[in-house]
Write a structure and sequence with these properties.
about 350 residues; elongated; 8-stranded antiparallel barrel; single chain; mainly beta
Length: about 350
């Protein structure tokens, strides 16, 4: 819905006004082209925002027109220069023009600077934000002005939330930090991370993402979609729940393994280290010989039982690599798949190996 002009006189209705209990019915009003949002979720307070301007809070109250399904919310800005916001709310079916959803209220909003907006209002759901955002990997699918990588690309922007800690990949670097959930708002703490430099467009994607992925973010979405909207203004971030690759049934090609000397190294040039987990059996190539054995897995815990190999003899360098790789594999205790890469660790936290799915 677009910003337009409409007679301000509509707000000042002639019918008698009475104090309303409408504020006990919280509403979130919004519009598109340009995007705007008005939160009427706290008694006596309104918060108005657009993507390119900070949130402005207003203190006021609502009145309803006697005998009509209309109310007017009026309030003064909590700023040094003040100014009045007036929201004219009409109870009735309203289409947002962007989806098939029908909302219960239509809204017209006048700001102190003379701008007018039209849109719809919805009743906030009793959203279980924790169940919506946590314990999943979210892949960024929409960042205004930027072209994003496709699924499972190595530089796809991803984020995870779990038990007050967030981590992910911002397009060039890994990041981590803390968060809290306050109603329908996600509040991020200071983020830290690696400091690599990457070629374009990875750096500009990362910079744009981190500008929006900070501070307080409104949470919306359900199921496999998550939308985070900066409360203080900024680009809206749209994510899709990433379907994780399975440990079992995949052909994994090792990209790095622990050599037993506190280092993760790449396989020797011209050799391939592979593995596959299937039906309780793990097998693959250790660079010279084929190996096989049994494994058990429970959630992210992994146990590799003693491995057996064929008896082919290779040059000494390959045999040293084979022994180090198999020793590392037998020390595995946990596994994870991050951005399409298998990541296995041992009990002391040291990495056992990393591997990509065959053909990626």
């Amino acid at each position: 819905m677009s910003r337009n002009t409409w007679p301000l006189a509509l707000v000042f209705v002639a019918a008698p006004m009475t104090a309303s209990l409408a504020q006990e019915q919280p509403l979130i009003c919004f519009g598109n082209e340009p995007f705007w949002r008005l939160d009427l979720t706290e008694t006596g307070k309104a918060r108005f925002s657009t993507p390119d301007s900070p949130v402005v809070e207003y203190l006021g109250d609502a009145n309803t027109t006697a005998g009509r399904k209309e109310s007017v919310w009026r309030g003064q800005a909590i700023t040094s220069d003040g100014g009045e916001l007036v929201a004219f709310l009409h109870q009735g079916a309203c289409s947002d023009g962007m989806s098939d959803a029908v909302h219960p209220y239509a809204a017209k909003v006048a700001l102190p600077n003379g701008r007018h907006y039209t849109g719809c209002c919805r009743v906030p759901e009793t959203l279980n934000v924790s169940a919506t955002v946590e314990n999943a990997t979210w892949r960024l699918t929409e960042l205004p002005g930027k072209t994003l990588p496709t699924d499972y690309a190595r530089n796809a922007v991803t984020v995870r939330f779990q038990a007050g800690r967030t981590d992910g990949f911002s397009g060039c670097n890994q990041f981590m930090g803390s968060y809290t959930l306050e109603g329908e708002t996600l509040v991020l703490g200071t983020l830290g991370g690696t400091m690599r430099a990457c070629p374009e467009p990875a750096m500009s994607v990362e910079e744009a993402f981190l500008r929006s992925f900070s501070g307080a973010l409104g949470v919306a979405g359900a199921g496999d979609e998550l939308i985070l909207t900066p409360v203080g203004g900024g680009a809206r971030l749209r994510f899709e729940r990433e379907v994780p690759l399975p440990l079992e049934g995949m052909q994994w090609e090792v990209t790095g393994y622990n050599n037993g000397r506190q280092a993760v190294v790449s396989p020797q040039t011209g050799t391939r280290l592979t593995l596959m987990f299937q039906d309780g059996q793990v097998s693959g190539s250790s660079g010279c010989n084929r190996f096989h054995g049994s494994f058990t897995v429970e959630e992210n815990r992994l146990t590799i039982h003693p491995l057996a190999t064929t008896r082919k003899a290779c040059d000494e360098a390959l045999m040293v690599q084979e022994r180090a790789f198999l020793n590392a594999l037998e020390s595995a205790t946990t596994w994870d798949i991050v951005r399409g890469m298998l990541d296995i660790h041992r009990a002391d936290g040291e990495r056992v190996l990393t591997a990509s799915s065959r053909g990626e």
